[in-house]
Amino acid sequence: MGSEPEDISFLEESLFKKQFEAAPESIKRRLTVQYRMHPYIMGAINQFYDRSLRCGIIEPEKERSHNLAGEIIQEQHHLIWVKMPQQPSFAEQREERS
Fold this sequence. Notes:
Elements: H1 15-22, E1 33-34, H2 39-45, E2 54-55, H3 60-63
Parallel strand pairs: 1-2
């Protein structure tokens, strides 16, 4: 397999997405209980899932504690928004690799 854009264009679309879209409706299910993130983080992204996500963690404060305590990040903070300048020098840049 080469590394020319036309040779790897199939990587642009996820295999999971292709399989999901090709599957009959009768076997499709949306998973709504999540066990990976603290409920505060889930709350921030739940808007993208029609508010259908539910937390399956029994004791999230214990099981998803980050154990950090400082002036900015405190024990009760599980999500932090960082305002970044809009100048091009702060934009994400792709590293070229050979």
